[in-house]
Amino acid sequence: MLTPATDRLPQTNPGYSRMFAPGRLTLGILFAIESYLGDAPTMTDQIRLARQAEQAGFAALGVRDVPLRDPSFGDLGQIYDPWTWLGYVAGQTSSIALFTAAIVLPLRHPLHTAKSAASIDRLTGGRLVLGIASGDRAVEFPAFGVEHAQRGVLFREQVAYLETVWGNNYPKIESPYGALHDADVVPKPVARRPPLIVTGHSQQSIDWIARKADGWITYPRRVDLQVELIRQWHDTVESVLPGSFKPFAQPYHIDLTADPDVSPTPIHGGHRLGRSWLMRHLEALERAGANHILFNLKYGSRPAEAVLDEIATHVVPRFPALGIA
Length: 325
Hints:
By secondary structure, the protein is of the alpha/beta class. The protein is built from ten helices and twelve strands. The chain has an eight-stranded parallel barrel, surrounded by six helices. A two-stranded antiparallel sheet has the order 5-6.
């Protein structure tokens, strides 16, 4: 358990394999699994709903990293620390991928991130898919003594740091984070590293993301613009690593109406729409090359349980988690 698994690629991990494959679209759901006004969900019945999503064939549960309450941001995610919450959820589920969307690397010491991520990865047998980001809420950075303008540089440095401590026993590192000598980070991940999915651009080029990450999750856009971006992503991956597959994912806010034929109208980060139109939208994204959609129910007008039931019954069977019959 303590030796780096340098012979195993992160793409072989169960979490990644449940979420991603060429030409396939799978579905996930983001905590909190509920609709709510303001920035704070109730966080009631979350484990029951998470188990329901797992049993229905959703591919992933998404967890966000929101270090501080920022009134201008308007959403606290699942409220609890992502690693604590993941540990809690992991112990009460068995196969669904656990997707961080996303850990803000510059606001954390990389040794803490390395140990936390590898711990969840090991304890779940490789269900962790590690979404990472540079951070987008400027108000948080002064509280941590970090320069917001430097977040892109810090992000690149931390990705390299994490790979070093995960992939080596007793590495020697001299960095602004301190001097690491004659000590080691344990446990090591199941594979060389947990699968890394970069969120947004994180102040990097698409070329850098295609080279360094195992996939990309970026924000929803108008369909024609998103289709072009998906094409650009897959073309970039092919140009830097011919023959490789690296998935494209996006979050998606939905307010799913009881009438399945209601046509889409925009809401923040997504649409209010009926099930029939949702199916058409997902099928269009799959044809374009999208590989995973992470639903967010915050702006829903119906109870989350009813929405989850409808998606589980009518939508997930068309886009099941990989390996689900």
